Amino acid sequence: MRPLSPLFTDLYELTMAAVYFEREMFAPATFSLFVRRYPPNWRFFVACGLEEVLTFLENFRFTEEDLAYLDSLGLFKPDFLDYLRGLRFSGEVFAMPEGTVFFAGEPVLEVTAPIIEAQLIETFVINALNFGSLVASKAARCMLAAKGRSLVDFAARRTQGIDAALKVARASYLAGFVATSNTLAGKLYGIPVTGTMAHSFIESFPREIEAFYAFAEIFPENTVLLLDTYDTLAAVEKAIEVAQRLEAQGHRLKGVRLDSGDLVSLAQEVRRRLDAAGLQYVKIFVSGGLDEYRIADLLEAGAPIDAFGVGTKMGVSADAPYLDAAYKLVVYDGRPVTKLSTGKKTLTGQKQVFRFQEEHFERDLIGLREEEVPEAVPLLEPAMKGGQKIRKDSLAEIRQRATQALAMLPEPLRSIRPSETFFPVELTPRLKALQQKVEQEIREREGLF
Q: How many helices (H) and strands (E) does the chain have?
């Protein structure tokens, strides 16, 4: 696959870079990425997208075609375009590994590089980490709602584009989903793939039972029958016939799927009939407009559901379609800087996040990178140095990290509809003192009182 062009950036990144170039501003800069606030009912995030960022940075280069396009805009001088011709990302990335649980206000990633390099990548870095962490967090909330039941990604049809569908499959698997219906994602990422059948398949046969038998004949070990094309309770009787024939042949019906109607009462009656026929092993799989709220409601109502297919509302994070992620300059040429805008202040300096934990996460401290905090776990780790990856986690390792992290969430934060309880995140005294010092210097320098 051809590397993505550095032209995937907002134009003002390039115009700022041109000014830096003219003023010979090539000193190192550190930019920090964080999420300002939680969407309604959310109390945590799951880090996702770092691998995509590192790959982009390793392959960062302008092609002659890119440069010709920039030249056609009539904005940039030839010497600046020539500078871009030889530009490669040479900096370092300090980041939370994918699968780490993090909280609002905490730096998830910090990039240090000559300011032109660090500036030009802003758009991509925000895009990759924002979307990946958004979907991974939404998927994690679905996992918590399911209370140990299996979840499958069904989102490919309604995500905003093909690229998004692939990223959703990876992010949801990272967060704990067991499989995806997206076959290409299975190939690219090594994710288990699964699927059942569509209503069109059943409608194409003269009778529903014929469709059921045809599928079971071809896939005797992997048959999940869709029950709601015509009448769900009539269909379950046919599913029992198919299951009994499969048993006689030495196979087992894997499951049945419900996709519409009163899912609580239907699941209860389907379970009752299957059990009465001695088919306790047949699983009930439910899909259709599901998210963490719907999953929680179904289970609280006593629906005997074994697994869920979660699609649109997870894939587009319907109730929270974006994260308020920001990538802000915090150090330039050894000088700590900050932004004082109301509601959008930034924390100055190169930072670290220190987590206190025993059986559960207890509290986090944001401090300066060189600080040491006894008995706390530092969360940000080196991921790239000199423009080369030094962190290469497998998806299985990332998935395990996320599973362990979610298990350590304090109980109030695990709720889908939580109270006004937020995880405690504070600043170390050293960072607090530096922040106050830098803010005061800015006010004095700019005549602000």
A: 17, 19
Beta bridge partners of 33: 109, 327
Domains of the chain plus CATH, in order, are 11-135+320-446 (3.20.140.10), 142-315 (3.20.20.70)
> CA nearest 7: which of 73, 61, 83, 47?
61
Identify the pLDDT of residue 3: 83
Residue 342 has pLDDT above 90, yes or no: no
- Distance, in Å, from the CA atom of 363 to the CA atom of 425, rounded to the nearest integer, reads 6
Q: Which pair of structure tokens corresponds to residue 108?
A: 């998830």
Instruction: Supply 7's token pair.
Output: 């032209």
Q: Which percentage of the chain shows pLDDT scores above 90?
A: 96
CA distance 355 to 200: 52
What separation in angstroms does the CA of 92 have from each of 54, 114, 346, 361, 369?
10, 10, 21, 29, 14
Question: Residue 193 in contact with residue 181, Cβ under 8 Å?
Answer: yes
Count of beta carbons in the 10 Å neighbourhood of residue 72: 8
Q: How many CB atoms lie within 10 A of CB 198?
A: 12
H or E stretch at 32? strand 28-35
Amino acid at 44: F
Average pLDDT over residues 127-150: 98
The SS3 assignment for 230 reads coil
**One-character DSSP codes across 330-391:** EEETTEE-----TT-----SSEEEEEEESSSEEEEEEEETT---TT-EE--EEEEETTEE--
Residues whose CB is less than 8 angstroms from the CB of residue 161 and which lie 6 or more positions away in sequence, other chains included: none
| Rounded CA separation 325/210 (Å) | 52
